[in-house]
Design brief:
Catalyzes the reduction of 1-pyrroline-5-carboxylate (PCA) to L-proline. The chain is α/β, with parallel strands linked by helices and about 260 residues long. The chain has two domains: about 150 residues, Rossmann fold; about 90 residues, ProC C-terminal domain-like (ProC C-terminal domain-like fold, Orthogonal Bundle), CATH 1.10.3730.10. It is about 50% helix and about 15% strand. An eight-stranded mixed sheet has the order 3-2-1-4-5-6-7-8, with helices on both faces. Bound molecules: NADPH dihydro-nicotinamide-adenine-dinucleotide phosphate and (2S)-3,4-dihydro-2H-pyrrole-2-carboxylic acid (A1CAB). The site of NADPH dihydro-nicotinamide-adenine-dinucleotide phosphate (NDP) has 25 residues, from α1.
Length: about 260
């Protein structure tokens, strides 16, 4: 059973996952958080400034920056035994690196969530090696309150990190760009921001609920020879948006691969 959970590094992403778990009804008493700067933990969650000595947890989740891994791993390793499931959300920290740094762990799972975990709406990519089916099912169940867990081969982590981990930032840029474009055409800036956000929220919810693909939905918005088609023609000219999206994802995926190299133990 994955009852007790130690989160090491509870910043933006670790904090979002903790919020999602608590909102999903998991008892706060199951969580212990180690973080040097977190002002306070949610009610019922134990907050420590340093790693606990001699304690054992069913799950240890690494939530520090990837650049910290080599420094903190030797102090974390004594907490980890064959009964521990090690989870890592560190971009670029490969399973082989985790195996070198935490050889005693009963299971090691690499995870790529995003900040929407806080509201239970994150894609959650997971990769592992040599895990027994029961423990794998327990990890999946632990991720369920955070969104949509999917086990994937580890060699897809660079692109999945770019798409699903970094992706919210790209969407936020697009919302800002829509709002700035509308403001430049004369709309009040605050109103433009509200309308852009509501448009993206509604479009995204509809696409998620619809039997139709996003491409088909775009076709349904665009009346022949109308307003939308005039705008789509700009996005589609020379595949401008498609190329920009691919270049954006490639830059993020390449950086993830570089970080994996730098983090290799
Ligand atoms: N942000 C995101 O959307 C996503 C992030 N990730 C991954 O999540 C990890 C964390 O990123 P993010 O949350 O953005 O980063 P943050 O800097 O917000 O969080 C990391 C936290 O760990 C703390 N910390 C530093 N050293 C230790 C230590 N020795 N023991 C315990 N805690 C420590 C940091 O404190 P201090 O500030 O003092 O260093 C900070 O509070 C990264 O590895 C990243 O790749 C993955 C997916 C998405
Ligand atoms: O930017 C980063 O490196 C992390 C990984 C994915 C999202 N944030």
């Amino acid at each position: 059973m994955l009852d007790t959970i130690l989160i090491i590094g509870c910043g933006n992403m670790g904090g979002a996952m903790l919020a999602g778990w608590l909102a999903g009804g998991i008892a706060p008493s199951r969580f212990t958080v180690v973080d040097p700067v977190l002002a306070e933990a949610p009610r019922g969650v134990t907050l420590l400034r340093e790693l606990p000595k001699g304690a054992r947890f069913d799950v240890v989740m690494l939530g520090v920056k990837p650049q910290m891994l080599a420094e903190v791993a030797p102090t974390i390793a004594p907490l980890i035994g064959s009964d521990t499931t090690l989870l890592s959300i560190l971009a670029g920290a490969e399973l082989a690196t985790l195996a070198t740094l935490f050889p005693a762990a009963g299971a090691r799972v690499r995870i790529m969530p995003n900040l929407s975990a806080a509201i239970g709406r994150s894609p959650i990519a997971l990769a592992t090696q040599a895990i027994d089916a029961d423990r794998q099912a327990e990890v999946t169940a632990l991720m369920d309150p955070l969104g949509t867990p999917e086990w994937i081969p580890e060699d897809q982590f660079d692109v999945v990190t770019a798409l699903a981990g970094s992706g919210p930032a790209f969407v936020y840029r697009f919302i800002d760009a829509l709002a700035a474009g509308a403001a430049a055409l004369g709309l009040d800036a605050g109103q433009a921001q509200r309308l852009a956000l509501a448009t993206v929220e509604g479009a995204s919810l509809l696409a998620a609920a619809s039997e139709h693909s996003p491409g088909e939905l775009a076709r349904r918005v665009a009346s022949p020879g109308g307003t939308t088609q005039a705008g789509l023609d700009v996005l589609d000219a020379d595949s401008a948006l498609a190329r920009l999206a691919q270049d954006t994802l490639k830059a993020a995926a390449d950086r993830n691969a570089e970080m994996a190299k730098a983090t290799r133990a």
